[in-house]
Amino acid sequence: MTVMGTARPAGRPRSERAEKAIVDATLDLIGEGTSVSELSIEAVAARAGVGKTTIYRRWANKEELVGDALATLKAPLPVVEGRTVREDLVAYLDVMRQDTLTLRTRCIMNIAMSEPDRHPNLYERFHKTAIEPRRAAMRAVLERGVATGELRPDLDIELAIGMLSGTMLWYTKGAAHNNTPLADDLAARIVDEALRGFLSR
Amino acid sequence: MTVMGTARPAGRPRSERAEKAIVDATLDLIGEGTSVSELSIEAVAARAGVGKTTIYRRWANKEELVGDALATLKAPLPVVEGRTVREDLVAYLDVMRQDTLTLRTRCIMNIAMSEPDRHPNLYERFHKTAIEPRRAAMRAVLERGVATGELRPDLDIELAIGMLSGTMLWYTKGAAHNNTPLADDLAARIVDEALRGFLSR
Amino acid sequence: MTVMGTARPAGRPRSERAEKAIVDATLDLIGEGTSVSELSIEAVAARAGVGKTTIYRRWANKEELVGDALATLKAPLPVVEGRTVREDLVAYLDVMRQDTLTLRTRCIMNIAMSEPDRHPNLYERFHKTAIEPRRAAMRAVLERGVATGELRPDLDIELAIGMLSGTMLWYTKGAAHNNTPLADDLAARIVDEALRGFLSR
Amino acid sequence: MTVMGTARPAGRPRSERAEKAIVDATLDLIGEGTSVSELSIEAVAARAGVGKTTIYRRWANKEELVGDALATLKAPLPVVEGRTVREDLVAYLDVMRQDTLTLRTRCIMNIAMSEPDRHPNLYERFHKTAIEPRRAAMRAVLERGVATGELRPDLDIELAIGMLSGTMLWYTKGAAHNNTPLADDLAARIVDEALRGFLSR
DNA sequence: TCCTAAGCGAGACGGTACGTCAAGTCTTAAA
DNA sequence: TTTAAGACTTGACGTACCGTCTCGCTTAGGA
């Protein structure tokens, strides 16, 4: 008699070694600058020392493979609970800045954000697992700021998130293009400017 | 013997019809949502009713073809000289918003901004002809604002540009993803929030 | 201690059901017109409801499987002991003709004789179990004919066998190709012509 | 203005070098004992130093390629017009015997005759270009023999053809199997036996 | 009643070849 | 010399089987 529930399916179980090798090969290739379109299953199979079938058996297409591969890298959301709203916001934005420092993360972001129309599922997944949590964390900080009176009570919180994240993204794009690192105090300067406003008073 | 000066080269002159057909076909395909990577010279040639050689003779690679094709669309920079800094900024940002309304522009932006690492020259050209002028125009407005005392004298103007453009870009990305149009008053709300600052006073 | 002799090997005995299912599936597929080269072990296993391993455990390769499968069909050699040499020869040749009437036998012959170079063992077996006995039977008839004086004393018996069998084979080939049945009296006509000779006297 | 008739099609003409290389590679491989089923387009392409497309552009499938390849080898039908029917028949049969002496011809025959059901078009072509002409030549000889009174007036000519060719084929099969050469005087012995008949008078 | 050994179906494994497609280059006759 | 057409080599695509290998389970005889 067998214990009910998730009965192990018949036949030889899929090799975890193979799976890992495939994912690693995919990430390697992406890390070397291969775009999703350029990434060939054949190359992944060769690099992983695996038959093509073994890849096709698990993933229906490149997108899903890349999606799963990127998912294994999901960096943990930093938990920053500082004393002031400003400190927290700076911390969150600075994480975004630091992400751009490692080649791998840069490549991944490039991939994930590059062709939302072309690889919608990919973008969707990236959005759910990477963007949305960060947005939520930032929202919490801003709402706390409004609650404590630190921030304007009529502040459009979604808009504020957009301003902070969008600005950092703008710089990230530029930095990726110029291949120059972002200034250490960039996050602080963005937050300060946003908090204070441009007007003279 | 040939007449000196801008001597007309020997042989059959290049067909302008062919050139135009090629560029049109390229734009058509891009407008239909074909990414740069997916865009096949074969398809362009077929659509244009032209031999592949005729394309390769004029452009060394896809990038240059796409670059030239996009260049023919360069929308004129709007000349907005309003009464206040706020009005001008809103006007500029709103042009960006309106750009997202037409499918073709959306596709082009997607293409141009999608893979800076993959197609650096393409991004470079787009940057020079589309982004830099807009940035310059915005910079002029902000400098005028500082000069007139409307804006803080210590305002980091580059950062301010980044905040305004980046925020709009952030929304544009989101809208492209959700396929929802941007609110009519978005530009105004961004500018107002930026001018005022988030703080309570 | 075990009883000496053909000691039953340890472990679970091989399933006769499986063996039969495999052979039947093989014959079915061959009967449906699958050539040896086209015959896939995978298909046999699927048709037999059996794991591939179960096949490979018993047969080293396709040839042996097909050989054993065909061997199970070995039709009994007809025993014809007529009054005259002519009657016996006609009887033997007519058996060959009748063999071509059933699809299965036709397929089998096709297979067995098709690629002696490719599947030498297969041909060898077919030769030993099907051709050689018939040849021997025919040889006996001819030798009896020579002994009784019915046939020329200097008749080259091997050659005579070749003429009779080869002629029938020639017709069989042609019939397989045109998909037309062989005439009922073909065997008799071949034998008569062979016995009499072509010359006018 | 173009000369009418078989107007040369536009574009680069197909390379005769490539065509020849492909056919040669095919014949080489067949000559090395590769069966039709085993023959892989990939191998032909590699051996010929040619892209697979170049093969598929010209031939829809293996059969047609092999057919055309074999067709280039079509040995000329020997013209034998001897003094007697016997001499002519012996000459024709001996050509068949000699064909079995060269490896290449043996392979080709094997291929061509091996799987009529599997490669019907191939067999059809072989039949039309190789078998039918020989049959016709032999028929002419036999009819001449009947006309001159050398042969029985009621001789079944088609049957006679079958007896002569079939017998030689029977020996050919056997020789291919045993890898022993056919006796030099085989053709003569077959013809003599056939002309004379088996009976004692 | 267990233990040991082998067979069982299932199905994953690394491969090879398939036939298709597009890449970018080359070669022709005509313009 | 450029044109359109279309051949060229190259290489990835996704599929089908190959023959081997693991799984957990079954089936038997002997301890």
From TrEMBL, chains A, B, C, D:
Residues 16-77 form the HTH tetR-type domain. It comes from the Bacteria. The keyword Nucleotide-binding does not apply. Pfam families: TetR_C_11, TetR_N. Keywords: DNA-binding, Transcription, Transcription regulation. Coiled coil: none annotated. The keyword Heme does not apply. Residues 40-59 bind DNA. One of its GO terms (molecular function) is DNA-binding transcription factor activity. This is TetR family transcriptional regulator. It comes from Acrocarpospora macrocephala.
